[in-house]
Design goal:
- The chain is about 0% helix and about 55% strand.
- The protein has about 220 residues and is mainly β.
- It has one domain: Jelly Rolls.
- A hairpin with a 2-residue loop joins strand 9 and strand 10.
- The protein starts with 7 loop residues before the first strand and ends with a strand.
Length: about 220
């Protein structure tokens, strides 16, 4: 496991720590990925709905990422190292009191840095999630709209994955499909996944591939 570069410069929004206590607190996962073109990956794309999720009552419900808000994340990663301690991330957070937000950011040596959040309304409509690297700069887009946060990081991914990350084992996450799964390598065109693999499915989660380009996951619900 090695980083492809040691230079890390944030452009646009300044990266900030989330609640430090939340960096590696207890989590359960329902995640599928692919190692195609490992060590050369430069982008990930998926579509999923931001349908309502029920989490346990908590505190600091309107503060993104904090564990006391019992967050559940529907997200997409480009993992720079096999241990996922370094990664590019984009997704949706669901917290107590129905607070839902899109987020972008990265993980560096195990610490999470947010590049921005946007409050949204839960919806069953599909949304497009795109992270990709061009000229050694990583960009983020929701529904084709590029976000202001970017990061200059001359690094490539070992694997990409999508799925659910939950800090609340009592949460009710209905079956979510992550579809149209694609990747880029060496800053080239988009390719559909063809060799998927299950990364992690922890109780009380379920998860499986419906096809090479469609992952199905849920928590305390059938997939």
């Amino acid at each position: 496991m090695r980083l492809c570069a040691t230079l890390l410069v944030v452009v646009g929004l300044v990266g900030t720590h989330a609640d430090p206590a939340s960096a590696f607190n207890y989590r359960v996962y329902s995640v599928g990925g692919t190692y195609e073109y490992s060590n050369s990956l430069t982008g990930a794309f998926s579509v999923h709905a931001d349908a309502a999720i029920t989490v346990s009552p908590g505190t600091w419900c309107y503060t993104p990422y904090v564990d006391s808000a019992n967050p559940v994340f529907l997200q997409q990663w480009v993992n720079i190292t096999n241990d996922a301690a370094n990664a590019i991330e984009i997704g949706t957070g669901h917290q107590c009191n129905g607070f839902v937000y899109h987020f972008i950011g990265y993980r560096w040596n195990g610490d999470w840095y947010s590049l921005g959040t946007t409050e949204i309304s839960a919806t069953s409509s599909g949304h497009y999630f795109d992270t990709h690297r061009l000229a050694q700069t990583w960009y983020f887009a929701f529904d084709g709209v590029q976000q202001s946060g970017t990061i200059f990081w001359n690094a490539t991914g070992v694997f990409v994955d999508v799925g659910i990350e939950s800090s609340d084992t009592a949460a009710s996450v209905p079956n979510h499909w992550f579809t149209q799964l694609q990747y880029t390598f060496n800053e080239g065109p988009w390719y559909a996944w063809s060799s998927p693999t299950v990364i992690a499915v922890n109780s009380p989660m379920c998860g499986h591939f419906i096809s090479a380009t469609q992952w199905s996951g849920a928590e305390n619900n059938p997939c």
